[in-house]
Amino acid sequence: MIKVLGEIELPEILYKYRDWNSKYHRQLIEKQIAYFASPGTFNDPFDCKIPIRYDINSEQHLEDIYSDIIKATPENVSEKKIRELSKRWVQKGPISPDSFKKNDQEYFNDLNKRMGVFSISEKNNDILMWGHYSNSHTGFCVGFDTAELLKTEGVDYIGKVEYFQEFPVIIPDRNLESQFKKQIFSKWNKWQYENEFRLTKNHIKNRKIKIPKTAFKEVILGFQMPEKQRAKLIKLVRRNFPEILIYEALPNEEKFNIEIKEIE
Q1: CA–CA separation, 189 vs 181, rounded Å?
Q2: Contacts of 239-245 spanning 24+ positions with Cβ under 8 A
Q3: In this predicted structure, what is the pLDDT of residue 76?
Q4: HSE of 12 in the Cβ direction (CA atoms, 13 Å)?
Q5: pLDDT tens column, 161-177
Q6: Which of 104, 145, 175, 199 would bridge with 217, disulfide CB 3.0–4.6 Å?
Q7: What angle do CA 77, 180, 151 make, to 5 degrees?
Q8: How confident is the model at residue 73 (pLDDT cuts 50, 70, 90)?
C-alpha cells in the first residue's frame, strides 16, 4: 500500500490530463501504464529544485547528519571514528557550508535519475489544465478511484503539493522523510490552481508502472477532440473498462467555466 505523506485528506477521485496524440499518454487507457517522469523534465524550473540550506546549519547539526550517513553504511566503524570522519567532512566534505551550491547541483542531478513522479489533480474542469496538458482541449482526462489507486504496486508515496510565495526553507534534516516532503511537494503559488497531488517512486528502475484496472473510475473527453479520435477512445474505454462512465468537458455558454457532462 502506498504511504500517505502528512495528515492530508485525499479526494475520492484524482484526475490525470492526457494528450491523445502521444502514444505514451494513450498507454494509460490501452495498457493501464502510467509514466513516472523525472523532475528534470518538468516545465517549472524550480520544481523539486528548491535549494537545501546547508549554509545555515550549525557545524554540530552537520556532524550529526554525517554520522547518520556513515552509520548507514555496511562498514563496521567505531563511534570515535564516526565522529572523527564527521568533523572532517564538515570542514572539507562535499556538504560543507562553503560548498552547498555545488552539492545541490549534484543532488539534483542524482534526483533526476532516481526519482519518478506522477502528477494528478483533484480538479477535472480546469480551463488551463485542459489547455496545457490535454493539447488545447483535444485530449482526455482519466479519473482514478483514489482508494484503488493506492493499491498500485511499486509506488512509495502519495502527497499533496504545498504552494509558496517564497522558497520554503529546507534544512538538512535527520528526519529524511520531512526533508523529502518539502523538496518534492513544494511549488510556487502561481501553480496553486492545479490543486496537485503526486505519486512518487524513489530509486526508480522502470518509469512505466502498471495501474490496477479497478482504479479507473471515469474518462472525460476534451470538447475539441477530433471525431475519429473520440470514437476510438470511446471504443477502447468501453472494451477495457465496461463499467466506468464516459463524460465530455464542454464550455459553459454564459461564463468562463467548463462543465462535465455524461455521454449518453
Answers
A1: 17
A2: 240/29, 240/30, 240/32, 240/213, 241/213, 241/216, 244/216, 244/217, 244/218, 244/219, 245/217, 245/218, 245/219
A3: 72
A4: 2
A5: 999 999 988 877 656 67
A6: 145
A7: 110
A8: low
Q: How far apart (Å, rounded) are the C-alpha atoms in residues 147 and 81?
A: 48
Rounded to whole angstroms, the Cα distance separating 254 from 160 reads 33
Neighbours of 110 (CB within 10 A): 10
d(CA 113, CA 78): 33
26: left (phi over 0), alpha (psi -120 to 50) or beta: alpha
Angle ∠(30,32,35) on CA atoms, nearest 5: 105
Residues 6+ apart with CB under 8 A from 86: 62, 63, 64, 66, 67, 70
Task: Output phi, psi for 243, to 5 deg.
Answer: -95, -15
Strand pairing class (157-160; 196-201) = antiparallel
- Given a cut of 80, whether residue 157 has pLDDT beyond it is yes
Q: What is the pLDDT of residue 143?
A: 98
Of the listed ranges 40-44, 57-61, 108-112, 238-242, the least confidently predicted one is 57-61
Global pTM?
0.83
Q: What mean pLDDT comes out for the span 15-22?
A: 97
Q: Is 125 helix (H, G, I), strand (E, B) or coil?
A: coil
Is the predicted pLDDT of residue 95 greater than 60, yes or no?
no
Nearest CA to 115 out of 205, 22, 202, 187 is that of: 202
Question: Residue 226 has which C-alpha cell?
Answer: 477530433
